[in-house]
Amino acid sequence: MKIKTGYLYHIKDKYFDVVNDENLMQNHERGKKRPTYFTIKDKDILWFIPISSKVDKYQKIIDKKVEKYGFCNTIIIRKIANENVAILLQNAFPTLEKYIDHVHTINGIPLKVPTDLQNEIKRLFKNMVGLKKRGTDLFFTDIDKLKEKMLEEIR
C-alpha cells in the first residue's frame, strides 16, 4: 500500500499493544469501529492525527480554551467529505506503515482531505512540534518516546 500525506487511514490494534501508551486514543471496540487518522508522511515515520465525529464534545473543549487563552489550535473543527469533524492535533502520534490497516474510503474511493485543509493541519502540526522543541508540549502523549520506539523498529 502506498501511503500518502493528506489521506485518512485506519490503524491496526497491534500498534496500541506494541507501544502500550495509556495517553493515546485507543481503537474503539477493538477490531470493529476504528477512528480515522489524517496522515502526514515524514520519511519512514507517519504522523497520525485522529479525526472524530464527536464535534459537540470537542467544540466545548475548544470554547473553554478560547475563553482561557483567546484561541485554540490544538483542536479544529472543519468539514471533510461534507461532514463536520474534530481534528485532534493534540492527540497526534508517530507510527509506521506496517501498522496501517487500510485507507479510509467512501464508495470504494480513498478519501483525500482538501488541499487547503491539508495545509492548515500541516501548518498547525508543525507549529505544535516547534513549540514542543522550545519547551511547550501540547501533545497528550510523549511523541518523542514513541518516535524513538518506531525508529528502533526500523533499525
Question: Mind telling me which CATH architecture this is?
Answer: Roll
Distance between the termini: 21 Å
Write down how many β-strands occur, each being a DSSP E stretch of 2 or more residues.
Answer: 9
- The sequence of SSEs as H and E is EHEEHEEEEEEHH
Protein structure class = alpha+beta
How would a crystallographer describe the biggest sheet?
7 strands, antiparallel
Number of helices: 4
Structural shape: globular
Low-confidence runs of at least 5 consecutive residues:
none
Number of domains: 1
Which whole number gives the mean pLDDT?
89
CATH topology title: Thiol Ester Dehydrase, Chain A
The proportion of residues in beta strands is: 25-35%
Radius of gyration: 15 Å
CATH class: Alpha Beta
The portion of residues assigned to helices is: 25-40%
Structural overview:
This protein has 155 residues and is of the alpha+beta class. The chain has a single domain, classed as Thiol Ester Dehydrase, Chain A. It has helices spanning 13-19, 55-69, 115-133, 143-154; strands spanning 8-11, 36-42, 45-52, 75-80, 83-88, 93-95, 100-103, 105-106, 109-110. The strands form 2 sheets. Strands 1, 2, 3, 4, 5, 6 and 7 form a 7-stranded antiparallel β-sheet that branches. Strand 4 (75-80) and strand 5 form a beta hairpin. The protein is globular. The chain starts with 7 loop residues before the first strand and ends with a helix.
